[in-house]
Structures are given as structure tokens and as C-alpha cells.
Specification:
Helices cover 19% and strands 30% of the residues. It is of the alpha+beta class. The longest helix has 12 residues.
């Protein structure tokens, strides 16, 4: 089964049955309430609950600035099953990102990530955790060379559209891995490059981080049916794809 998205009650419902609901989370929307963002009033979990009329249980997470497929269970039992599927790497997640520079056709980043605590959310966490294995596969989908000198070292500026497939699910893994290989994700204010972020805001009116959870593939936790859930791209993403003639490159 292959599902596309449609909008319901202020939240983009991608898929729903009696056991699951998936949404296309917008960039800037928190999954649930957090001490880190006390001023926020809209949360994906509450909006989804209100839209479907029952309590929902988060089974994975997306960073606040990341958009795309976010899956919830409608019962604690299904949530446990899905959480185990994620933990056992039985769910395939694919992301789209725009990164600085030209990346090779394909490759793997195998780089362990140390624990990076949040000042409030991880106040009581073990700060001596050893670095955890983290593996990300990438595929370069398209490239562009722009006649703008974002860096003083070069007269032009290069970007790549890439598909990222994480094997592991470490905190900020994709953002930190792209920084590690010097291909920062555009719009990332924590792990990115401010020069390129400012350029995209000024030149393309793009203020979001260009990282999108495009698809989630898994076996349905109750029926066992293969399930492929896809999330469409927002206006800022489409503006970039059109400007760079990349629209056809995101399919597949």
C-alpha cells in the first residue's frame, strides 16, 4: 500500500486506520510539549489527537525544524510493537536534504556520535555515555552551481539534493553527519553554516531547514501488510526545487 497526503483539521493526515495514524509534520512544529519551548502552543501530538478523536502515542520523533512523516499509534500495545520495530531497524526512513557542496553519487557516513545533552530536557541524563554507533547512507539526486559568491574563496556556490537513509536513529544524526563530512544541511542553525543559511533566506525567501522525512516503510504492526507512507513538500521546498530545476529529481 502506497499512501499520499491530504489535510484534515490543521494537521496533514497521511494515513489512518484503527491502529495507526501518520501525519506530514510541518517544519517548526514540536512533536509534544517541551520545557525547551515553553512559549509554543501547537503540538503535533495534540493536533493529531484532536483530528482523529482519540489519544495517540508517539513511536519515533522528528526534530522541530524537520518536516515529514511522523507516525503515531492509537494504543499502547501497538506503540510498543512499533517502538520495537524502530529499535530493531525494521523501519526504513528516507529523507531529502539540500546540502552545501557537490556530494559523490552515493556513500556512507559511519561515524559514532557522542551524547549532546540539552540543558533542560537532558538535565538528569548520564553525561558520560560513550559515543554511539551511527550510520547514514546517502544518494546524490541532483546538483546546482550558482553564480553567487557565498564564500570569499569561490566565485560560484554549489549545492546538492541528497536522499539520506539512516541505519541508526541517534539524536540529530543526519544534521551532525552532514556537518562531519562538510556538507552542512542548508537552514540548520545548530549544525549548519550561517553564510549559506543567510543566502537562502535573502535570495530564495527560504527560512526553514531543508531536511524532510519523505517516506517511511514498514510492516503494519497488526496486519503485517507492507506499508509505504510518503509526505509531500511544502512551499519553501518547492520554491527551491523549481529554482534549481530539481522537481523531477525527488520522485522515486
Amino acid at each position: 500500500m502506497d499512501i499520499e497526503s491530504g489535510t484534515v483539521n490543521q494537521i496533514d493526515i497521511i494515513y489512518e486506520d484503527e491502529f495507526l495514524v501518520a501525519i506530514n509534520k510541518e517544519a517548526g512544529l514540536l512533536v509534544h510539549r517541551s520545557w525547551l519551548d515553553k512559549g509554543e502552543t501547537r503540538f503535533a501530538m495534540q493536533l493529531t489527537r484532536d483530528a482523529v478523536g482519540c489519544h495517540v502515542f508517539p513511536v519515533h520523533r522528528l526534530d522541530k525544524p524537520t518536516s515529514g512523516v511522523l507516525l503515531f499509534a492509537k494504543s499502547s500495545a501497538v506503540a510498543r510493537s512499533l517502538t520495537e520495530a524502530f529499535a530493531e531497524h525494521n523501519v526504513t526512513k528516507q529523507y531529502l536534504a539540500v546540502v552545501r557542496g557537490f556530494m559523490a553519487d552515493q556513500g556512507v557516513v559511519d561515524y559514532a556520535l557522542s551524547f549532546k545533552p540539552d540543558a533542560i530536557a537532558d538535565k538528569f541524563a548520564d553525561l558520560d555515555k560513550p559515543a554511539q554507533e551511527a550510520v547514514t547512507h546517502w544518494q546524490s539526486l541532483a546538483q546546482v552551481d550558482l553564480p553567487f559568491a557565498v564564500s570569499k574563496k569561490h566565485d560560484t556556490t554549489r549545492y546538492s539534493l541528497v536522499r539520506l537513509t539512516p541505519e541508526t536513529g541517534r539524536k540529530h544524526q543526519l544534521r551532525r553527519h552532514m556537518r562531519h563530512v562538510f556538507h552542512h544541511i542548508v537552514g540548520d542553525t545548530s549544525h549548519g553554516d550561517g553564510r549559506h543559511n543567510r543566502f537562502f533566506r535573502a535570495q530564495y525567501d527560504c527560512s526553514r531547514m531543508l531536511l524532510h522525512a519523505q517516506s517511511l516503510a514498514l510492516s503494519h504492526p497488526v496486519t503485517g501488510e507492507p506499508l509505504l507512507i510518503r509526505a509531500g513538500l511544502d512551499d519553501q521546498w518547492m520554491r527551491i526545487l523549481e529554482a534549481f530545476s530539481w522537481v523531477d529529481s525527488v520522485e522515486g
